[in-house]
Amino acid sequence: MKKSLLWMLVAILTCGPVMTSCSHDDNDDVNVPVKKEYFKSWNECAALKALKEYVEDVTNVKSKNFISVEDRIATFDMDGTFVGELYPTYFEYNLLEYRVLDDESYRDQAPDDVREAAQAIRDYVRNGTALPDHFDMIHANAAAKAYSGMTLAEFDAYVKEYASKPANGFSGMTYGQSFYRPMLEVFEYLKDNGFTVYVVSGSDRFICRALVDAIGIAPNRVIGMDVKLSSNNQGDVPGVNYTMGKEEYLVRTDELIIKNLKTNKVLQISQEIGKVPVLSFGNSSGDCSMHNYCLNNKYRSEAFMLVADDDVRDHANLEKTLPLFTKWSDEGYHVISMKNDFKTIYGIGVEKTDFTFPE
What we know:
By secondary structure, this protein is of the alpha/beta class. The chain is built from 13 helices and 9 strands. The protein has helices at about 1-15, 45-60, 90-100, 110-125, 135-145, 150-165, 180-190, 205-210, 265-270, 290-295, 320, 325-330, 340, and strands at about 75, 170, 195-205, 220-230, 250-260, 280, 300-305, 335, 350. The strands form 2 sheets. It has a 7-stranded mixed beta sheet with strand order 5-4-3-1-6-7-8, with helices on both faces. Helix 10 links the parallel strand 6 (about 280) and strand 7. The longest helix has 16 residues, at about 110-125. The radius of gyration is 25 Å and the shape is globular.
């Protein structure tokens, strides 16, 4: 018995503390640490190399550029940065068009200005008619009115129901599945390296929350366009003078608070996060302010712009997008080419098709 115990002790001391040092006759390597493989959807490219080099540097405690976990903040625009943007236009534009012109439960109730905004979207996507000047604000105010009175749960369900429809211009994908697979891998990589990711979008905050719920981004990590909320019984009484009851609930109102574009993104980041991001990802001029805010940082920081230059796997306007490589490089941003840097965009089984419109 004593001899058996002695041999057990020898075995534990030899093999237990460092499991990978034990040999296995059957070549079982279950105890050998496996290095996680990232970026399976990427081609090797300058932008990816820059990202990996940056993360390795700022997470290295021996580096002069080391950033502690609590300050590893990364901000991502949504539409066109990690979610499809051209089917045939922004998700929230498509949603408003559907709400006002096709949804039988609402279309006869839409105010004239809301109907005009929805029709402008329809004319743009179907006929190529230019949108009115400052349409981002026209849309924002129209959308505030179009969903006014909905509870937050009702609006979330409404967005998700529309997101379950087949994405126009693609086969094998719904609107709610239209994430750029390579960018989801960036999220995973950053999370595993101690970064906190925020979505900072020009789209409605609650639309963004509904869409990114599928990929595990928490609601408190989403910043977007905001409308005023109200308790269902509050009426016109200011919140500072009103005590919400236990049985009351929140509803959307028709009052726009902020369209979260350009410098407004910076203001919202400062208000809600309270720290300057060290990484910033976007795809348009609406993200430049956020990028510049990031780059003016006490820590080493980087900004990335994705260019939609793939007209085979996605709907791209090359006349507009190709000049952006030089423009964004000159601004000091790393440029990601959808065409050259992504092995896949939406994943296996998704193909670009012509846009279709009902009669």
